[in-house]
Design a protein that fits this description.
The complex is a heterodimer of chains A (about 120) and B (about 110). Chain A has one helix spanning about 25-30, and strands at about 5, 10, 15-25, 30-40, 45-50, 55-60, 65-70, 75-80, 90-100, 110, 115-120. With about 120 residues, chain A is mainly beta. In chain A, the strands form 2 sheets. In chain A, strands 2, 4, 5, 6, 9, 10 and 11 form a 7-stranded mixed β-sheet that branches. Chain B has no helices and 10 strands. Chain B has strands at about 5, 10-15, 20-25, 35-40, 45-50, 55, 60-65, 70-75, 85-90, 100-105. Classes of the chains: A mainly beta (about 120), B mainly beta (about 110). The interface of A and B includes residues 43, 96, 106 and 111 of A.
Amino acid sequence: VQLVQSGAEVKKPGASVNVSCKASANAFTTYYIHWVRQAPGQGLEWMGIINPTAGSLTYAQEFQGRLTMTTDSSTSTVYMELTSLRFDDTAVYYCARGGIISSATSAFDIWGQGTMVTVSS
Amino acid sequence: DIQMTQSPSTLSASVGDRVTITCRASQSISNWLAWYQQKPGKAPTLLIYRASNLESGVPSRFSGSGSGTEFTLTISSLQPDDFATYHCQQYKSYSFSFAQGTKLEIK
């Protein structure tokens, strides 16, 4: 089982970024997917969770209004869009596999390789 | 939201040492706690889940304990491959929050 993310992005302040996370079929239909980010030299910050099958989701409060997570079941891909980018959104963004669909309460056992998003003028 | 804190933030140790990292939650999380290892430029990898369960393939020198609000990660005999950053995470609530991490350095 693998999660493969899209490549690095450079964006200007105020722009939007869209990062993709492609999963093998079994991982996509059976497990929750999370998004986590890590600013340079900092810790991990949870952003949100999505049920790829039902589309239900929860966003961390600090990202409400700027974050959108979607899925494309035809390609087993989850997308994360962050809008109104600021300099402090510069970070590595990871997708990660969480619990099976019957229970979201689970550690993250598989991670994507990460996508560097740089916000620079 | 549940806040997570780790100590120490940096730990210097030698190969063969026994080391312990502490993680505290701002409220009880039962045993819904995970530990991750992260090496520079790489994604985190899961070491321990449910506070004390070793993920498949993780060496037995790693162990976790605790419940409620206080938890520990212990490495019984440090190996060169263990020098990395360690993160704890609670997954009791839908904040899935992480602590700030502990960097384990070679003394």
